[in-house]
Amino acid sequence: MKIALAQMHVVPMNPEKNLETMLNMIESARQQNAEIVVFPELCLSGYLLSDQWLNRQFCRDLMHLNAPLLEASKGLTLVFGNIYEVPATDSGGFHPNKDGRTRLYNAAYVMHDGAYAQRSESVDFLLPDGVHPKTLLPNYRFFDDQRYFFSLADVAQDFSVPVSSLAQPFLIDTSDGPIKLGVQVCEDLWCKDYRIQGESINVSKYLIQNGADLLVNISASPWTFHKNDARDRRIKFLKAEIEQADLSFVPFYYANNVGAQNNGKNIVTFDGDSSAYNRKGELVRESIKPFQQDLLVLDHQKIDKVTAQRGSSARIAQKYHAIVTGLRHIPELLGWQEPPKFVIGLSGGVDSALVAALLKQAFGADSVWTVNMPSQYNSEKTKNAAAFISEKLGVKHLVVPIESLVQEQMEVFGKLDESCPSPQWMRKLSDENIQAKIRGTSILSNIAGRYGRMFTNNGNKVEIALGYATLYGDVGGVIAPIGDLTKAEVFAMVRFLNSEIFKEEVLPETMLPDELFRFGSDDIAPSAELRDAQVDPMKFGYHCALLEAATSFKKVTAEEVMSWYLEGTLAKHLNVAEALLQRWGLKDPETFITDLEWFYEAIRKSVFKRIQAPPIILTSPSAYGFDIRESQLPQWQSPNYLALKQKVLAMDSYQERLALGGRL
Amino acid sequence: MKIALAQMHVVPMNPEKNLETMLNMIESARQQNAEIVVFPELCLSGYLLSDQWLNRQFCRDLMHLNAPLLEASKGLTLVFGNIYEVPATDSGGFHPNKDGRTRLYNAAYVMHDGAYAQRSESVDFLLPDGVHPKTLLPNYRFFDDQRYFFSLADVAQDFSVPVSSLAQPFLIDTSDGPIKLGVQVCEDLWCKDYRIQGESINVSKYLIQNGADLLVNISASPWTFHKNDARDRRIKFLKAEIEQADLSFVPFYYANNVGAQNNGKNIVTFDGDSSAYNRKGELVRESIKPFQQDLLVLDHQKIDKVTAQRGSSARIAQKYHAIVTGLRHIPELLGWQEPPKFVIGLSGGVDSALVAALLKQAFGADSVWTVNMPSQYNSEKTKNAAAFISEKLGVKHLVVPIESLVQEQMEVFGKLDESCPSPQWMRKLSDENIQAKIRGTSILSNIAGRYGRMFTNNGNKVEIALGYATLYGDVGGVIAPIGDLTKAEVFAMVRFLNSEIFKEEVLPETMLPDELFRFGSDDIAPSAELRDAQVDPMKFGYHCALLEAATSFKKVTAEEVMSWYLEGTLAKHLNVAEALLQRWGLKDPETFITDLEWFYEAIRKSVFKRIQAPPIILTSPSAYGFDIRESQLPQWQSPNYLALKQKVLAMDSYQERLALGGRL
């Protein structure tokens, strides 16, 4: 018996297109003699549709699309994800969802030879033939499943039956005889932290207990770096728990979609990596087409006779592919057939240069304009770099000097200043912001609107975190392609593009620092160029690592960073060189504390800018947008915080602690 | 025995201030001989703190504040809300939250005479003395409890015991002898749609089953219109379910906070309305200080001898108080002691006039500047209205003509137009947007930045929904005070302000239409004034009602609206006059369909603007921001939709259907 894993490109909110893809892939699988064809979770509609799920008319419309799939299942078995709304007119009357609306499952459908498949043991409880709800509903990061769906665990609770009794495999006839097919949806595989009876809610175990001969997991699982390795480990965890229950693991098939979807504030990419595991929990096959549609046809009988090694690709290469995939989502989310057109404010600095290169890679040179907008503060060096990059990329380059607009605004505010007093520093800062706003709003957004283009936000994650950008200036744009890359990653991706993609110096090496983030005197050091001799206030490398810690799963706090400093383990914990701390003067406790407080306070203070910022393409385990959710809140320093701070300030030097090997 | 309900003003992220408030209210309650003092849910920290809850250091810091409260509980009983983190070092090892972090309860704490109170029946399962987790975790609207907290129901599932067995009251000594005090948290009262064993998870019933003599609900329950009536009905529902189980209802005390909190995209207000109900489930007392701190001291023995009638206040008056409360949250969220200063772009239209009046009411005339920014398209009528309103409000009024800035931009784009072709209509639209952006970004945002003020977003809900505003123009601002009011409500609130608050015509009546939303020729009809003779394209009244339906709990779809039209019941369902449909030409099926498609499509298309819009003060049951969550998605018209549309277009007229009384 052959099983086909259909790693399809799901286009959100385009059911007809997705249905067409499915029918084509089914046909192709049929030609390769596959008997079971497995599609991803919610593959007709897309998964990240936000409150579209509250629209029950939409859900019913989606369920109507089961009919052509039922027809297509003749002669084989189909597994795919779709919505199931529990009919309000059922014998039991109205069954509420947790929000009081009609009950909605994010379900795996199983169809066999033109009919909804039957379970090997029939169950009642509003679980019709061929419909198996997702058991575990993720509600962390950008996931909002608990907001919309009613889980198999919720069904179990409602009817007061063990959830294990509801996890019944479906009985399917195959050329190898009848088999029991256990199905599950995405998170059901990541069960470790969902608890019942002191154990994890291990849906795989329940299915095997109930006789499943093989397991199929249908997913809409976003790409993150090393998620495939994490999944391999998770399969091992399932197997161990299953063997503890004196059962044997069974072949495990995982189908995931490719493409990108969004939640308004983030664009989330899907790499696929559809895979199969054998009875030993070993990987036997993975899709070698990350981010691309693929059909993997596997021989179920031979699954224990082969193993595979994971292909590996560097983090920065994977992030590059994720960003390009995310960018290519733009026409989909607009419902456009043609490639969109862009305009990029190209300052001659490294961030906008990278964005221009990424846009060109995603849509081709014809889709991209660059525009340099010099004022009196812009150097010949950066202006020339912008022209050079544009020529190398082969994109149209405009130069729009902003001096006349700046002067006109200065005149308006010169008059207003007379009747509206304010301190000198505030006026100077305002003068800088005026330039940024003229670039972002007066020029870029109007070029976009006037000539039918979109303009990009070129901020990196460190700038977005610290609020080092001007609202209605460089905070604007339709998308932030590198908004989830630290500056260190920006430099790394520029190197990657030159060496691996372009194979020549398209993005000038003068934009790149040495390993301690130092620039030579002829280089283009990061600067907003809004006043004379301005340089970015960030301690690159160090702030990049600090930000990764602060936004990581552990949400490392200033207190924790201070305790590392007290122990002399700061560089070790941040995985940076001691020399980098030295280079930024951080071995001096006062410099360290001043910087640390500025860093966390800048993150807190700039929430208001992120509220009005465009969607970010997600490339890290924790992105600003809808992944990190932020209220506007004042600062609070706890007594514990203040005590730690005093301890640090009382230190002679960090060097000494370091010499003591962290001993206090 | 006397019980005090402490309706405190909770300041989010200001634990010291909240602790001080609590200690003061405890002292005041003690002086009034109260033996039990009840505070709201999460009253030390605030409730809507977003991902601050992922910061376990912060949670531990909050738990340290239990110590002074334990001290303050000497001689009486305290009930209040705080976080409880299950210690990772417990005998049972590490207990995961659903997200894999350490387990966190949103808990009711009960302290009695300097100690954590003991349960009447001891329970194990990581539920220490004096700590009772919230059982039901709301995850609809802007609520995200499932993202952060582990519930009593989750504890029950983890340890495989009935949740009812864990809902044990606390044993408290009082002057009336020992009593069993049942505590619950907010949503636990709204249990109808949470299901277990085919019934609602009725925590009140469990507590009474387990011997509770009285129930205390601690809430952080946002204001919405008529929520108090809904709560009265919910109490009746609880009582009915309890009596079905052959139990008697017990006195029910409800303490809710006042103030405002935010989630970044919405400002949510809390009116308090702390209340007590007797054994019959009747209201016996409510706080008559909506949105204000209050201490209600009740005699528990006399609770069955009194009843109260709800005070009633009109919807628009309540919304007015909610908005003023929401505005006054701004200094809190910034951590400022002084009132913030504002600048309002005052066009002479009704929306900005209302915003100016609201800001003046919230912060006083000294805090407000208005600025009129005329171009060639602005009429004397609106300019004069702006000056009149400013004078009446007593606020500083600036006039900053924008013609010179417009001309300078036209010159820049005149040059660009030569090398960048685009259609004429696009340039005309761009010319309009340029003016809006000059007002929003070049003038307002720079006045704000330069003179230390904040500028407001003056959009109403209809404009925000339909995207009738310019990004980086009138979409900007730090807050949208009337962003959750329809235009009909804007008119109503202007009338309310003139008649009830100002008691004179501060906001000119010429801005107000008649009951069919018609303006006289001398009136100021809504217009963006970006070109000659421009008027707003909205069908006011009708689109207001349509928007309320589309964003309501039912999420009324275009399909449903078409079916109402087919039935001749459109006006009835939207609760508008038939004459209003007539006035907008909607009795003609083609006009109706064209408008309906424009309406829904405009909402869909403008998600990208809302992504970059400022926080909205929530006044409806469904506000844009974080309450309504939106992905950017293309349009999809289902076969069902298209069929209905054809049916409508085949109608002779709506009038005929109406005459038939909706019969088809």
Automatic annotation (TrEMBL), chains A, B:
Domain CN hydrolase: from-to ranges: 1-305
Domain of life according to the entry: Bacteria
An example Gene Ontology molecular-function term: ATP binding
Pfam families listed in its UniProt record: CN_hydrolase, NAD_synthase
Gene Ontology CC, one term: cytoplasm
Keyword NAD: yes
Enzyme class: ligase
GO term, biological process aspect, one: NAD+ biosynthetic process
Signal peptide interval: none
Keywords noted in UniProt: ATP-binding, Ligase, NAD, Nucleotide-binding
Documented EC number(s): 6.3.5.1
Recorded metabolic or biological pathway in which this protein acts: Cofactor biosynthesis; NAD(+) biosynthesis; NAD(+) from deamido-NAD(+) (L-Gln route): step 1/1
Family: In the C-terminal section; belongs to the NAD synthetase family. Belongs to the NAD synthetase family.
Protein name: Glutamine-dependent NAD(+) synthetase
Originating species: Planctobacterium marinum
